[in-house]
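Researcher: Sequence recovery benchmark, item below. Answer with residues only.
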């Protein structure tokens, strides 16, 4: 457990834990001197580390590598970007046509990240990285812009405080730091667990807000196999060390589901626990989840066949797919199933003749409907086509 000094450093006047203060203090110190125990070791692709200064590398505190799941040309948002390591790796992966945005609220970490931004860009031959000061659970509020207002309008009483609050809301609405539907991929490396429990629903709602339709979140974080005790939750050293604030593994996935994501998948999971506290195991996982299942359900006479290997599966919206059966789905679900992460497990069956938006009828996605083959074939249902006589020649099709 933390020492008395550490507990005092992370406590408010009434004795309750001030999580933001504990995290800010520890990471401010970690930006200036490396702290080896702050998070677990990660193997990154060495080709992307060559242009990153050692000062950034030795002050990197992550638990996974979400950058390996990025693609060229994507716009990437890194939540809790720290010293900028993942941003500078992502910069190389997405290339000159891509864009990388880092958000952090720690001044020392932002100073470190920005220190080498120009020189790294010159080495790569392009500048595609930028950093902003903000809280990851409030991505609309640019704290640098708010601080400029506060410098000109110091808070000296309740009226000034109310004016500052009003200005913050104005900035969120008129000049959002991260705009709606502007991001292809959100990444984060061992940061979501540092957010206060009361702010976590807003955090996931913000991820939904800024992602484009079809965009995805790729989040590496520490999870636990059991719920942390109250004593652990009130220890600033364990919280700022990515332990007592860790999501329980099943609840972490549930947060994505409740926020409206689909295709939620654990794509990396540490076999052995990184740490064990009072018998509770803590390990790194990387989760991928997609945005874009909202909208009306309309019938375009489409069907999908689940290829297996399971006998049946159920998606996040309750659609049940039976292996080998032509399952009727709405157009929205059909489009989702035709791409990652479902595409390789699904055979998509469009109708022989497209159904226009005006012709499409509402579709009930709550049922279990097997689509007749004749329904997808439309007016070609009675057609007869025999194989060519030469079909079984040298280039046999038989």
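Model:
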């Amino acid at each position: 457990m933390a020492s008395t000094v550490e507990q005092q450093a992370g406590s408010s006047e009434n004795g309750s834990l001030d999580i933001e203060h504990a995290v800010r203090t520890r990471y401010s110190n970690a930006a200036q001197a490396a702290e080896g125990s702050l998070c677990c070791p990660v193997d990154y692709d060495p080709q992307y580390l060559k242009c990153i200064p050692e000062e950034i590398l030795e002050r990197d505190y992550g638990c996974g590598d979400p950058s390996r799941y990025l693609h060229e040309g994507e716009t990437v948002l890194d939540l809790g970007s720290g010293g900028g390591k993942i941003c500078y790796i992502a910069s190389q992966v997405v290339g000159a046509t891509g864009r990388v945005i880092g958000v952090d609220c720690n001044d020392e970490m932002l100073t470190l990240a920005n220190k080498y931004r120009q020189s790294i860009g010159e080495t790569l031959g392009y500048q595609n990285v930028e950093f902003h000061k903000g809280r990851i659970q409030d991505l609309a509020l640019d704290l640098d812009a708010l601080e400029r207002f506060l410098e000109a309008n110091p808070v000296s009483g309740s009226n000034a405080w109310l004016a500052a609050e009003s200005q913050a809301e104005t900035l969120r609405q008129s000049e959002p730091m991260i705009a709606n539907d502007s991001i292809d991929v959100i990444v984060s490396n061992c940061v979501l667990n540092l957010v206060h429990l009361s702010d976590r629903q807003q955090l996931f709602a913000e991820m939904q807000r800024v992602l484009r339709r079809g965009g995805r979140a790729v989040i590496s974080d520490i999870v636990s196999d059991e719920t942390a005790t109250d004593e652990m939750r009130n220890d600033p050293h364990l919280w700022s060390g990515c332990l007592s604030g860790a999501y329980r593994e099943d609840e972490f996935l549930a947060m994505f589901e409740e926020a409206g994501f689909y295709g939620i998948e654990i794509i990396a999971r540490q076999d052995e626990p990184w740490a064990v506290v009072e018998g509770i195991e803590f390990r790194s996982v990387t989760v991928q989840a997609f945005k874009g299942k909202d909208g009306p359900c309309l019938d375009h006479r489409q069907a999908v066949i689940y290829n297996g290997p399971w006998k049946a599966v159920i998606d996040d919206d309750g659609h049940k797919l039976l292996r080998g059966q032509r399952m009727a789905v709405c157009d929205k679900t059909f489009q989702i199933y035709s791409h990652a992460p479902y595409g390789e497990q699904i055979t998509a069956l469009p109708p022989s003749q497209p159904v226009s938006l005006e012709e499409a009828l509402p579709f009930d996605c709550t049922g279990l409907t097997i689509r007749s083959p004749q329904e997808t074939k439309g007016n070609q249902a009675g057609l007869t086509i025999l194989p060519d006589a030469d079909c079984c020649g040298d280039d046999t099709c038989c």
